[in-house]
Amino acid sequence: MTWQQSPHIQTFKLFALVVAVCLGSFYLISSVLIPVIISFTLYALFQPAVLYLVRHDLNHALSILIVLVLLVFASALMIGFALPALIEQVSLLQAKLPQIVKQLELLLTDYGHRLSERIGADLDVSEITLSVLSKSSSIGQAALIEVSNRLINFVIICILVPFLTYYLLKDFKRVRNDMMNWLPNSSFELGWLIYYNVSTQLQSYTRGVMLQSLIMATFCSIGFSIIGLDIPLLMGAITGLFNLVPYIGPIISIVLALLVGAAMTPLDPAVLYLSVVVIIGAQIFDNVVVIPSIVANAVNLHPVQAILGIIIFGSLFGTVGIILAVPAIAAGKIVFKNIYADMANASLRATPAGA
Amino acid sequence: MANVFWSNIFRKGDSELQVITQLWQHTPLFRDIPERHTRALCATMHLRDFKADEIIFTQGDQGAGAILVLDGEVRVSADKTELALLGNGDFFGEIALAAPERRTADARATTRSRLVYFLRQDLEEWIEHEPRLGARFLLNLSATLAQRLFAANKLIARQA
């Protein structure tokens, strides 16, 4: 057996082909990638509800309609009640941004002076701080303006997502079966096994992570309200959202909460400490209660793999890459393992006994 | 009139679906399961065509489900010993419905054959739709596997 025929090389070749096909597909649908991801997430979330109704002798199409109508109704309620409050809090944050920057500037300059005194060197910290802060401030304001400008995209997503979700709930399995039938006989079972393992893991991961984010958002919103942090609802929602990014997300949440706390007038150090306590408390609750009962075993990744993956995916694909990094790496691991098991067995069968 | 271009060449025709339903209905796996439910499940199964002498699976492959011979002939063997020659209506590989185990024998089509794949994925989705019938099916599957185990034990005892 030559080295090119070794199962490792064969697996790498096939795996590279699978990755190339996936990246090509993502590139082709890049203009509608976000609505597609949201629709698949909703599909994973609401498919059990549709199955529940079908089990109670309701027609499949009617069950989907009922679930979607309930979803639209719940979204309308949320938009009606929560969105005005959230918009108000975003405006508040926008108004507070210069104050946050000023507060941070003061803190950093003070820290810089103390550092200069301690090491005895003449550091012009204020200039470095000003340059960094002016950049981050302009980036922050640009981001907020960008959010407002993306309203049209948001409307398109709102229209497209229910349609896509309806057709996914109605026809996804049929289309999937038709596509899988194009596999050659020799890879038919392997293809289905990989699909089965990946879809099972991704569905449980999606459901788990969404529920986990919701719990975290609720926990932090209540906590921030109790300690008297500004814009508690928005900060809770942001913390829940950042929780989608393992390991790095909670750290960003702490920094954001500290910045909002630092911008409060009069500055109350107790609020700063307590906001960190709320997030760490939420993380402990998450790790002790939520993860073991909801997300455990959904993905089996080492923390180093996850962090490196998030950084690499983030630099390659931006925000979408950061959110998709963990499920994508988990799916990649399953695909690689299954292909390798098949290649290794084929290689074992091809090697004559005693060779 | 149906558009030939857009129609799915893999999709089972009504008469073919009827034949597949009848064949599965006569196996011990579908004992006491009403025909209309079997038919609904059969509609999700996968038809594959094999050439004469084409390998279906080999020992050690990861199994994804059970296979029914719709048309043709299949030779099942292990370590070059023929275990069974299967014809229309026979099924094999049902262990993969119960557990993600590796195939324990080789299967090869001896003539041009048409096979129906009943995958564990199809079974799990059907059980989500029909939990009571799913429980019935799993009992039938356990009984079938127990019978095969009993037969294998008898064979080993005879050879010893």
Comma- or semicolon-separated keywords:
heterodimer, A: 355 residues, 86% helix, 0% strand, globular, B: 160 residues, alpha+beta, Jelly Rolls, 4-stranded antiparallel beta sheet, 8 strands
Question: How would you describe the overall organization of this protein?
Answer:
The complex is a heterodimer of chains A (355) and B (160). Chain A has helices at 7-28, 33-55, 60-119, 125-149, 151-180, 185-227, 232-242, 248-262, 269-295, 303-350. Chain A is mostly helical and 355 residues long. Chain A has a domain at 189-343. Chain A is globular, with a radius of gyration of 25 Å. With 160 residues, chain B is of the alpha+beta class. Chain B has a single domain, classed as Jelly Rolls, CATH 2.60.120. In chain B, the strands form 2 sheets. In chain B, strands 1-8-3-6 form a 4-stranded antiparallel beta sheet. Chain B has a 4-stranded antiparallel beta sheet with strand order 2-7-4-5, with no helix packed on it. In chain B, α4 packs antiparallel against α5. Residues 1-10 of chain B have low confidence and may be disordered. At the A-B interface, α2, α5, α6 and α10 of A face β1, β2 and α4 of B.
